[in-house]
Amino acid sequence: MKFDKKYINTRITVIVVLAALAMIAIITSAILTATVQNEKWKGVAAMSVSDTMVLKPNRGNILSADGQLMASSLPDYKVYVDFLSGIEWWYDSLSTGKKQKLYDPEQLAKKDSMWMVNMDTICSGLAEICPRYTAEEYRTHLVEGLEKRKRYWEVCPRTILNFIQYNQLVKLPIFCLKNRNRSGMVVEERNNRNKPFGSLARRTLGEMYGAKDSARSGLELAYDSLLRGEPGKVHNKKVYNKYLSIIDKEPVDGYDLVSTIDVSMQDICESALREKLHELDASMGVVVLMEVKTGDVKAIVNLMRYDDGEYYEARNYALAALMEPGSTFKTASILVALDDGYIKTTDFVDTGCGICNMYGAMMKDHNWHRGGYGTIDVPHVLMVSSNVGVSKLIDKYYHNQPEKFVEGLRRVGIGTPLGLPFDGAADPRIRMPHKDSRGGYKMSDNWSATALAWMSIGYETQIPPISTVSFYNAIANNGKMVRPRFVKGISRKGEMVEEFPVEVIKPHICKQAALDDIRGILYRVVNDKDGLGKRAGNPYFHVSGKTGTAQVATGGGYKAGHNEHLVSFCGFYPSEDPKYTCIVAIRHAFYVASGGGQAGPVFSKIAQRIYSKNVTTDINLAKDSTAVFVPGVKNGNVIAAQYVLNKLGVKSQGGKGYEWGQASAGRESVEFQPVKVNDDIVPNVLGMGARDAVCALSNRGLRVRMTGRGKVVAQSIASGSRVEKGKTVNLELR
Fold it and tell me: Which CATH class name applies to 263-490+500-613?
């Protein structure tokens, strides 16, 4: 068979030419798209909207130790109006290739007429809803946006509406139209973090960046990954000319944090501290109340004076403020010497006339002008808080080995980093001297002959209050040092998912003999007639602790004369079987400074009020033997109600396996008439307390907003309605 070479060559030539032309066309088209038609395709891209959207989960709540709501997410709203919504506009690609807006004159006139007819009613309604502006000011503002054909014009300038205001707004003319193309209303919904108890423990609970919906500080930031939850996904699909939202992944709501904070204890601590701060015209004050066995922080108060003379939670001083602790530090110094075996409680030290020359610097006791204390034993050194006594004892045994003293401070726990999860939490700063090759101390350590003496009485060190109270708590806890705990665990839908264990930092901070000695001395500081901590004591139970007074430079150093005093008292009670450890620290410029006389009474008031909370009396002593006492039980959590009734010794029947129900009381028992839970139906929460109502609604994916106190008397979404997850139910309590 013969091949026609000429024919074959012609075919190849044609194929090559066509391929070359196609390649040229592709390259030319790409160049045109990237240059000449660049603006056109950018416009098309801007008009394209992704059909996949993110579903935001509900942020978890922060609860108190007894289950009360301390921080929760409630929606707030920024409302805009689009004065061009519903008016046709399209892309003109036939001439210039640039985006052009084309309006229908009839639609423009119709929209203008609709706004002007309802303008007076709208503006008067806005003035009632948000009285920040008058009706005339609202009219001027809205007419301006209408005339300028603004697409996103704020309805209430520089104002964020709450749930109630938003509900009132959508009842006004035009805004009541559900179709955005007709009303033009554009709503930006945000999660606002609401704190039902106001400023209580505000800095510890933390803050949120509202617009970003992200954590800023405190527990909100420390446990953000648990509180935030996991977002879901949804996409729109066109079916029979209608777009349907199809959920690809359901959002997972965040966990609830069960904190260690006790609301009533927090309120007791804050009110007692605030009263004393006003009395002294102090600049700031701190209180930390800790449970001895667990390290649970039951209350933490950080108050700072503002320009208006009032006190607010501005910074978490208890965790972040590095302060020279003053005389409360002397307990650690004496404990180190006792534990090392250098001193005994029967030893004496000569404090002279209250003034001592320590390597060229004058050390003074607070009563030096009255002649000092003379020769006193080791317990009295702490009881009267003698600077000279403590510094002489420590300098005698540690002057040539100061590094051993610093190691001892870390051993007993006062210098141990606590490893708290809070952003900005500070660790103790206690300098460690290091010897150089010639046997002296390195200049880089800034160590001098006087450093040890002043360190022993609480200067030249920086300790946050949380470290001081943790050290005293270890003494109260029979030498076991536990990490301060702020969160007991995480829960979801009212059930505990995980409990965080008590963490032991040091099983023993010192030898048992040294611990017994220091506890005995701290008892005498408060209960002995010679002790300076008498005003922290109480007639109903025994208190142990130590006073503290330190000079704090506020500018230019100590010699500049612009100084304040940090007065404090740290202790525990009852002395025989300690339940709580507490520190009170106040900074002020008052002419008299006394830790025992100024911080001590605050400690005493807090201790007595909290002690009285836990005093229980046998209910049988108050019973009338001729009567039958059967309490009425509100609609609410059956399991919780049965628990209370069992503790009271009252028989109860029914309710097992059900979550919510009614109850009726007979002469000798309570019978439950349970209502089985239906997650798709809004429950009836009328008559419930706030906790039960929030739990019942939250379990069904609803948000809750409450006003008032007491039991629920009204709910905005009627019971029996179909549940719309994420919708907010407004509850009125009375």
Answer: alpha beta
Give the whole-angstrom CA distance, residue 673 versus residue 245: 40
Nearest to residue 479, comparing CAs of 502, 503, 511, 501? 511
Q: Sketch the domain layout of the chain as residue ranges.
A: 5-36, 263-490+500-613, 623-733
Those residues whose C-beta lies under 8 Å from the C-beta of residue 694, and which sit 6 or more positions away, are 69, 704, 706
pLDDT digit string (tens) for 364-386? 998 898 899 999 999 999 999 99
Query: Could you write out the DSSP letters of every residue in 461-525?
Result: EEB-HHHHHHHHHHHHTTT-EE--BSEEEEEETTEEEEEPPPPEEES-SS-HHHHHHHHHHHHHH
Q: What is the dotted CATH code of the domain comprising 623-733?
A: 3.30.10.20
Asked if pLDDT for residue 524 goes beyond 60, the answer is yes
Asked whether the predicted pLDDT for residue 442 surpasses 80, the reply is: no
Residue, of 517 and 53, whose pLDDT is higher: 517
Six token digits for residue 17: 């030419």
- Hey, what amino acid is at 8? I
- For residue range 567-598, list pLDDT tens digits in order: 999 999 999 999 999 999 999 987 788 888 99
Per-residue pLDDT of 292-339, as tens digits, reads: 999 999 999 999 999 888 998 888 899 998 888 889 999 999 999 999
- The model's pTM: 0.70
Residues contacting residue 471 through CB under 8 Å, at least 6 positions apart: 331, 332, 412, 413, 414, 481, 509
Here the tokens at position 693 are 């109502």
Six token digits for residue 52 = 């996949």
Q: Are 293 and 331 in contact (CB under 8 A)?
A: no
CB contact set of 262 (below 8 Å; sequence gap of 6+): 64, 65, 66, 298, 299
DSSP 8-state secondary structure symbol assigned to residue 253: P
Q: Write down the residue that tokens 């003999």 correspond to.
A: 513
Q: What is the CA radius of gyration of the chain?
A: 36
Which spans in 35-81 are helix H?
A: 38-47
Please indicate whether residue 234 or residue 678 has the higher confidence score (pLDDT).
234
